[in-house]
């Protein structure tokens, strides 16, 4: 893998993948949502987010009792509820820092 990150040493096979990775360190979010202005590091994350603006309420039958946000799957509502409770059930084995999702723990 010829392209490596000068910040953390992670290596990539393509320069574009390194460029995308560098945004983790710089905080750059070059892809804004045209509807709400929220910004994303990767175009695919923006595409996924755009569905929140276009999915009809009938396709989001699971509503949050706290804020009213709708979800298409019960599991997604359960994950969202952690935002309101502050629950962080996933702990890092090395440092003990806690996270609300396994995904965030993995990124850490």
UniProtKB/TrEMBL annotation:
Q: Among the record's GO biological process terms, what is one?
A: positive regulation of DNA-templated transcription
Subcellular locations according to the entry = Nucleus
| Top-level taxon of origin | Eukaryota
Query: Pfam families from the xrefs?
Result: zf-C2H2 (PF00096)
Q: Which residue range or ranges hold the C2H2-type domain?
A: 3-30, 31-58, 62-89, 90-108
Alphabetically sorted, this entry's keywords are: DNA-binding, Metal-binding, Nucleus, Repeat, Transcription, Transcription regulation, Zinc, Zinc-finger
| Stored PROSITE patterns | ZINC_FINGER_C2H2_1, ZINC_FINGER_C2H2_2
Assigned GO CC terms: chromosome; nucleus
Major location (coarse)? nucleus
A GO molecular function term, named singly, is:
sequence-specific DNA binding
Check the record and name the InterPro entries matching this protein.
Answer: C2H2-ZF_domain-containing, Znf_C2H2_sf, Znf_C2H2_type
Its function, per the record, reads:
May be involved in transcriptional regulation.
What protein family does this chain belong to?
Belongs to the krueppel C2H2-type zinc-finger protein family.
Q: What is this protein called?
A: ZN467 protein
Origin species, per record, is Cephalopterus ornatus
Q: Which gene encodes it?
A: Znf467
């Amino acid at each position: 893998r010829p392209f490596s990150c000068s910040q953390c040493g992670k290596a990539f096979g393509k320069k574009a993948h390194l460029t995308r990775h560098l945004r983790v360190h710089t905080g750059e979010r070059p892809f804004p949502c045209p509807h709400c202005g929220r910004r994303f590091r990767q175009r695919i994350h923006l595409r996924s987010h755009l569905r929140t603006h276009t999915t009809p309420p009938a396709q989001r039958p699971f509503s949050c009792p706290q804020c009213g946000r709708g979800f298409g799957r019960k599991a997604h509502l359960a994950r969202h509820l952690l935002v309101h409770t502050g629950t962080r059930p996933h702990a890092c084995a090395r440092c003990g820092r806690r996270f609300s999702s396994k995904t965030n723990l993995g990124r850490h």
